[in-house]
Write a structure and sequence with these properties.
The protein has 309 residues and is an alpha/beta fold. It is built from twelve helices and twelve strands.
Length: 309
């Protein structure tokens, strides 16, 4: 008697990476700076901290902690609760930057400050300060809770954060007779910035729009749009706490293709193996190794799905 066999359908999965994905210049620079600080701290026998998570990627932060860096809780530090711990240490300022008072506080504690703020964020801080000195009422298009925005606000006291077009419309009424300037959190989408700028422009006769958007965000968005047209489904890799990765995933979902936002390969959903052509992209704070891990897992698991049942 011949034993019957059943076979699973074999799908030859094809992985297509976005032409632009993963870590941007500012994030790579911050990581390299922090690792050098960790080595220096070990040599000198000093503790090394980062002012808040260096970047918005939990796995990358965990890797830095293994290298000897400890994350300072920003709220606790700002209250003065960690003064004894931070005194005499080395503190790395995260890629998102920090308000001037943080630098002053650290220096009073005798800490060595290593500034890993992204150069583009530094330019935004300087521009906000300059606009305020020129007599403009300054609006910042971005997320109120984002570390970068907190840093910019520290350089432009009295500036107002605007998160969406509806808030901009209300602010335009309040600021109708003033000279108004708008700058942006570097990682917001250009369409969000443009919508906010249009409301302020309509309501404020003397209006100046200063586009401080980081091209890395726009480049990843454009590359994703091109990728979506070539694949059956999309995977976005990056921290769930990363603003630019969240926006990348929103764009992926809006493409009409099935899309998933994952941090690690372990989060890949079983249903993804029903698709043949998978598009892979990643946020600007996602290490290359994590993208590689996800691609490897997709190919290995797809092969397992095609084995005999």
């Amino acid at each position: 008697m011949t034993k019957s066999r059943t076979w699973a359908i074999v799908i030859a999965m094809i992985i297509i990476r976005a032409t632009v994905l993963g870590m941007c210049m500012g994030v790579r620079r911050a990581g390299d700076t922090a690792r050098r600080a960790a080595v220096e701290g070990g040599r000198l026998g000093r503790r090394v901290f980062t002012y808040g998570p260096l970047i918005h990627n939990p796995q990358a932060v965990a890797e830095l902690e293994r290298a000897g860096l400890t994350v300072l809780d920003t709220a606790a530090f700002d209250r003065g609760d960690l003064d004894e711990e931070a005194a005499g240490s080395i503190v790395v300022i995260r890629a998102h930057g920090a308000p001037p008072e943080v630098f002053e506080h650290l220096r009073r504690l005798g800490a060595t400050v290593v500034d890993a703020t992204c150069p583009r964020v530094l330019r935004s801080q300087a521009k906000a300060r300059e606009l305020l000195e020129r007599g403009y009422a300054v609006a910042i298009a971005g997320d109120r809770s984002h570390g970068e925005v907190a840093g910019i606000l520290g350089h432009a006291p009295g500036a107002v954060v605007v998160e969406n077009a509806a808030e901009a419309e209300r602010l335009a009424v309040e600021w109708a007779g003033r000279r108004v300037a708008l700058i942006a959190q570097t990682t917001i989408k250009k369409s969000e910035y443009d919508a906010i700028a249009e409301k302020l422009r309509r309501g404020c006769p003397e209006f100046l729009a200063v586009e401080t958007l980081c091209p890395a965000t726009a480049e990843r968005q454009a590359s994703l749009a091109e990728l979506a047209a070539r694949v059956d489904a999309l995977v976005v890799v990056g921290g769930k706490n990363s603003a630019n990765t969240q926006r990348l995933f929103m764009a992926a979902a809006e493409s009409g293709k099935p899309a998933w936002h994952i941090e690690t390969a372990e989060e890949l959903p079983p249903e993804i193996y029903a698709y043949e052509r998978i598009g892979l992209t990643a946020g600007a704070s996602t290490p290359d190794s994590m993208v590689d891990d996800v691609e490897r897992a997709l190919l290995e698991n797809a092969g397992a799905k095609g084995e005999k049942a």
